TrEMBL record:
Pfam family, one: UreD
Family designation: Belongs to the UreD family.
Keywords: Chaperone, Cytoplasm, Nickel insertion
Localization in the cell: Cytoplasm
Record bears the keyword Cytoplasm: yes
Gene: ureD_2
The name this protein goes by in its record: Urease accessory protein UreD
Subunit-level organization: UreD, UreF and UreG form a complex that acts as a GTP-hydrolysis-dependent molecular chaperone, activating the urease apoprotein by helping to assemble the nickel containing metallocenter of UreC. The UreE protein probably delivers the nickel.
Organism domain of life: Bacteria
Amino acid sequence: MALSLDDVSEAPATTHAPTGRRVQAALVFARGGGTTVLSRQGVPYPFHITRAFRMHPESPDLATLYLQSASGGLYAADHLTLDIAARPGARVHVTTQAGTVVHRGGPEPTRQETRLTIAADALLALNPDPLILFPGAHLAVSTEITAEPGARAIVTESVACHDPLGQGRPFDRLDLGLTIRTLEGRPLVRERGRIDGAAFAGAASPMGPHRAYGTMVVLGAPDDARLAGLTLRQAGDAAGCLTGVSPLPNGAGLGLRLLAPDGGALSAGMDAVFRIVFEALSGCAPGRRRK
């Protein structure tokens, strides 16, 4: 039996599961003064944002905002939620400064929830850099999009593996979920996926030799030849990715998937496809984003 210094028996040690952080951030973009403004924000730690930049001289009403992390990534049992609303007439591009590291987890997954609400005649492009899964990471990602008729959106999501020791150690598990619904709550698209890290990196992996994965959904896409499947596939493939394009169920829009050998190739492919789609939906090429 263990004894304390005052000769009083100590209670046996107990192991507690990590509690993680429960944090919710909210951004609301609206039309005001002939441009797009961030009309409301609630950005607690570890979320951080920049001011809205104007990177498109030919479209001064289009705002660009960087979403940042002040904590060095996502940690075990974190549960971070981001709500973004684009009001009628708002035109906004939200991106990140760099990839987000997902650290080793535990029995309870690290959760990242994104909830988007896009009004008619609004454009929201959410294009973060990849989530980087470290060895032992246990991540659950959920994206919910509520769109009115006439809303336009580009929403990307991407993950890559990285072992800082170069030993090829896999992440633990990855869960991905996507829901697209109407303003009345009628679901148009529901998608769920799960894969263990050992299967992801194994010889019989459904990813084949690829170790990075990205998706893009496009809502409110115009009838534009630039959005033809062949054009988008060629753009992604030219960057070293394996790219697939297909219509989403219930006429919701377009869905794209990209596989790449690593995070660098994935970022290049996602960026090449994003530039084409962004220009088709916004009427201007995406501004040069310094990172």
